[in-house]
């Protein structure tokens, strides 16, 4: 079953928090995403069932599968944010809209778009 946008947002938040702090707790995820701890708990259960995260005592850890997906989503986010910023879009708007754009393209379409942009920039 494909991961929905909210699931990808959780994985991306876990990755960013891990990079910033090393340890990721559910309360940190809730603060990062502006959701309740109950929502995080429900999401973590689903992500754990699907093999994306492992729950330790108080920590949330990405599995290899979760890390790969989180890195891909983050790559897409940064790509679209930077592309929009380069086109003159306000940085706050670019970040917000990139958050939506990162979820709407297939992996194949994203790869081809990225390759095209890199080719044009040369």
Automatic annotation (TrEMBL):
Pfam families reported in the protein's UniProt record: Fe_dep_repr_C (PF02742), Fe_dep_repress (PF01325)
Could you tell me which Gene3D superfamilies the record lists for this protein?
Iron dependent repressor, metal binding and dimerisation domain, Winged helix-like DNA-binding domain superfamily/Winged helix DNA-binding domain
Q: Which GO terms describe its molecular function?
A: DNA binding; DNA-binding transcription factor activity; protein dimerization activity; transition metal ion binding
Q: Which InterPro entries match?
A: DtxR_MntR_Metal-Reg (IPR050536), Fe_dep_repressor (IPR001367), Fe_dep_repressor_sf (IPR036421), HTH_DTXR (IPR022687), Iron_dep_repressor (IPR022689), WH-like_DNA-bd_sf (IPR036388), WH_DNA-bd_sf (IPR036390)
SMART domains linked to this entry: HTH_DTXR (SM00529)
Where would I find the HTH dtxR-type domain in this sequence? 3-63
Claim: Ligase is one of the keywords in the record: no
**Is Metal-binding found in the keyword set?**
no
Query: What are the UniProt keywords, alphabetically?
Result: DNA-binding, Transcription, Transcription regulation
- Lineage top rank: taxon: Bacteria
PANTHER family, per database record: IRON (METAL) DEPENDENT REPRESSOR, DTXR FAMILY, IRON-DEPENDENT TRANSCRIPTIONAL REGULATOR
Protein family: Belongs to the DtxR/MntR family.
- Name recorded for this polypeptide: HTH dtxR-type domain-containing protein
Organism of this sequence: Collinsella tanakaei YIT 12063
């Amino acid at each position: 079953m494909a991961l929905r946008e909210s699931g990808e947002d959780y994985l991306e938040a876990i990755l960013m928090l891990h990079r910033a702090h090393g340890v990721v707790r559910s309360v940190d995820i809730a603060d990062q995403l502006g959701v309740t701890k109950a929502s995080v708990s429900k999401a973590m259960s689903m992500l754990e069932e699907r093999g994306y995260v492992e729950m330790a005592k108080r920590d949330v850890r990405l599995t290899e599968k979760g890390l790969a997906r989180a890195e891909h989503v983050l790559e897409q986010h940064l790509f679209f944010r930077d592309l929009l910023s380069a086109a003159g879009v306000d940085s706050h708007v670019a970040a917000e809209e990139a958050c939506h754009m990162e979820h709407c393209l297939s992996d194949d379409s994203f790869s081809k778009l990225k390759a095209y942009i890199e080719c044009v920039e040369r």
